[in-house]
Amino acid sequence: MPPKGHEKTVRRSVPGLSSLPRPVYGRTESLPNRALTRRHSHPWVQLSYAISGVLEIHTSVGRFVAPPQRAVWIPAGMPHRVFSSPHTEMRSLYLDCSVTAWAAERCQVLEVSSLLRELIRNFSQVPVEYAEDGPDGRLAQVLLDQLAAAPQVDLMLPLPHEPRLRQIYRSLNLRPEQQTTLGEWSTRLGVSEKTLSRLFLKDTGLTFRAWRQRLRLLSALPALERGERVTDVALGCGYESTSAFIVAFRQQFDATPGEFFR
């Protein structure tokens, strides 16, 4: 979700909490502009979720993308940055490690069911220092049970670390629609195409073609969530036709753009 020309990007402050007031803490935030935070970490688990808008969590290993049907699970102590599209309504959760012993120690994107969405929405309205042995405390426990059962989904772009691959990533991240081939990149970077292909597979686990397709499709999510025409989004991220874009989208997400955001 790179900054685009006329869109204003603002810096979001990181909450200055020394400890959590309760084992499950809800944070509500309205972000009218494209926003980002500095790289930081917390001594607690964070669930980044938005009821509208698209979030991206950047870690050292990849970009984790969450439209409203998804959320990003960030383990305690993991350095990360948070990017949000314009008009994002965040409903984040901070979770003490004592109540998340079942969780994986890696960043991941989780599917948010209708029930889980409503639990998060309702929990964001409870008092900060709610009674843990009362109705709000029981709501928090149901919320934890649903988070433990939420399936993981593949909405992550692995980031290359090799310096030449990083140049390709930075260029495509700013302009995903460009059609530069791996052969053309090899000429620019003074390395053989075969070497670049091998480095991509080693560094990201994907071929260059598959990696670029995933980058394009993930970059398309904010515009689709805003309701922009599929044809305009397809052309804007490098596809020659709407049908080709929809086929690729269905392969990646098991749904058409319309089904995915319905």
Automatic annotation (TrEMBL):
GO terms for molecular function: DNA-binding transcription factor activity; sequence-specific DNA binding. One of its GO terms (biological process) is positive regulation of metabolic process. Gene3D superfamilies: Homeodomain-like, Jelly Rolls. It comes from Pseudomonas paralactis. Keywords: Activator, DNA-binding, Repressor, Transcription, Transcription regulation. InterPro entries: AraC-bd (IPR003313), Homeodomain-like_sf (IPR009057), HTH_AraC (IPR018060), HTH_AraC-typ_CS (IPR018062), RmlC-like_jellyroll (IPR014710), RmlC_Cupin_sf (IPR011051), Tscrpt_reg_AraC-type_HTH (IPR020449). It holds the Pfam family AraC_binding. SUPFAM superfamilies: Homeodomain-like, RmlC-like cupins. This is AraC family transcriptional regulator. Residues 1-26 are annotated as: Disordered. Residues 1-10 have a biased composition (Basic and acidic residues). Residues 166-262 form the HTH araC/xylS-type domain. The lineage of its organism: Bacteria, Pseudomonadati, Pseudomonadota, Gammaproteobacteria, Pseudomonadales. It comes from the Bacteria.
